[in-house]
Specification:
The protein is of the alpha+beta class. It has 20 helices and eleven strands. The protein has helices at residues 7-10, 20-32, 83-86, 89-96, 111-122, 133-140, 146-152, 154-163, 166-174, 179-192, 201-204, 209-224, 228-237, 242-255, 257-269, 276-288, 292-299, 304-325, 332-337, 412-415; strands at 38-39, 50-57, 62-72, 100-105, 127-131, 193-194, 197-198, 342-357, 364-377, 385-398, 401-409. It starts with 6 loop residues before the first helix and ends with a helix.
């Protein structure tokens, strides 16, 4: 359904000759399009000719094209423009020494006239162009040109303003399309439009087209098909910059929190060890505050390198604090304590840490090599001696905390 009603032009209360309001509109449009409009004065037949001068720039040079513009306003009758309405285009072009012929109409062009203009263009006699009502409406509704609608078609402008708000536009569509199609349109629009904001790859990440396209594909899977698992695969493994991935997740969480929660869970399962899965886990934990049980359930889905990144520092700190505070709880202490009358564990340095899910996937297991520093003292009051020994710590993380299940140390070097 057309938005602009060009009958407003022919209903003008001005004393202008018929169609001159359209010429005035087209002249102002030409100005905004940079076409340098001019027209001849009104002659004895009350007619006048409008011209556009178009500047074309090429790789080597530039040239100017002079267009003869013919405006035909038949909006009131609705009939198309025929050959008889424009006369001899070739003669007019020759008369005015023009390079092209532009026909502007508020309706359409007849098949015969369209064929004539196309033939002139194809044979190189003259360039031809048609702005029918659809093209004219398209040009006028551009943001830069819509002020002309307000000036020349005020009633249409008021209607356009109503339609430019989404709820009113949807309501207008309700009576124009079949109910099943309207429902699909409504569903798609509601999926992408939240709180006067549109969700799209270009809006989320305008800095990189490839990333924007990947986001758009993921949005279609998530919002239209309700398939967060496939959307997660697209985001985790598609062509997308990490900053764009991060921006997409944050934007979706703000506008679609429920669907984003499931998307995060599926991103974790995507097992991309280069960042996306781990970021999704941390983002989900921070934003949605899952229980400890749920965190473990999700963590076991991560790749092993992500588990090291996620828990490595926490495990190392725990090992240090646990062993320096209460080493006697573990069997390695018997080997260390037998080295002197008074053995004190001074420090623990962890390295070569491996972290992985348990076989039953109920907890996170870890194994770390450690360097144990001890101070050895004797009853004969000789100066204490500090030595280091290699060892190994095995433990796990479950919903209730971190635990060491075994701590061993190799003291063989002390006896050699």
């Amino acid at each position: 359904m057309p938005i602009l009603d060009f009958r407003e032009l022919s209903a003008s209360k001005s004393s202008s000759p018929a169609g001159e309001d359209l010429e005035g509109l087209v002249r102002e449009l030409g100005k905004l399009l940079g076409l340098n409009p001019e027209w001849s004065g009104r002659g004895a037949d009350q007619g006048r000719d409008l011209f556009f001068t178009e500047s074309r720039k090429g790789a080597i040079g530039s040239r100017s094209l002079r267009w003869l513009v013919s405006c035909k306003d038949f909006a009131r009758s609705g009939r198309s423009v025929s050959e008889a309405d424009v006369g001899s285009v070739s003669d007019k072009i020759t008369q005015h020494k023009a390079d092209g012929f532009l026909l502007v109409t508020t309706t359409t062009v007849s098949t015969g006239l369209k064929s004539l203009l196309d033939t002139l263009h194809e044979h190189g006699a003259v360039e031809t162009k048609i702005w029918d009502r659809h093209e004219l409406e398209h040009l006028l509704l551009r943001d830069a040109n819509v002020g002309l609608v307000k000036r020349f078609l005020p009633a249409s402008y008021t209607a356009y303003q109503r339609l430019s708000t989404l709820p009113q536009a949807l309501e207008s569509l309700r009576v124009l399309v079949p109910p099943a199609i309207y429902k699909k349109i409504q569903t798609v629009i509601e999926a992408y439009h939240v709180d006067d904001s549109w969700i799209s790859g270009e809006r989320i990440w305008p800095d990189d087209q490839a990333s924007a396209r990947t986001i758009d594909r993921a949005l279609s899977l998530l919002l239209e098909r309700n398939d967060p698992a496939q959307a997660a695969q697209e985001l985790a493994h598609g062509e997308i910059e990490f900053d764009a991935f991060e921006a997409a997740l944050k934007t979706l969480a703000a506008l679609k929190p429920g669907q984003t929660a499931q998307l995060c869970r599926d991103l974790i399962k995507a097992r991309n060890g280069e960042g996306p899965s781990l970021f999704a886990f941390r983002f989900y934990a921070e934003r949605y505050e899952p229980t400890n049980e749920e965190q473990i359930e999700l963590a076991v889905e991560l790749a092993t390198e992500d588990l090291v990144e996620l828990y490595g520092d926490e495990i190392s700190v725990f090992i240090y604090e646990e062993l320096t505070t209460a080493p006697e709880k573990y069997r390695a202490w018997d080997d260390l304590d037998s080295l002197s009358s008074h053995t004190r564990l001074e420090g623990v340095h962890s390295y070569d840490l491996t972290v992985r899910p348990s076989e039953d996937r109920s907890k996170i297991e870890f194994l770390a090599s450690v360097e144990i520093s001890v101070e050895l003292s004797y009853d004969n009051e000789t100066a204490p001696t500090s030595l280091s020994f290699p060892g190994e710590v095995q433990g796990y993380i479950d919903p209730y905390g971190i635990y060491i299940i075994d701590f061993t140390v190799d003291t063989q070097a002390f006896y050699e």
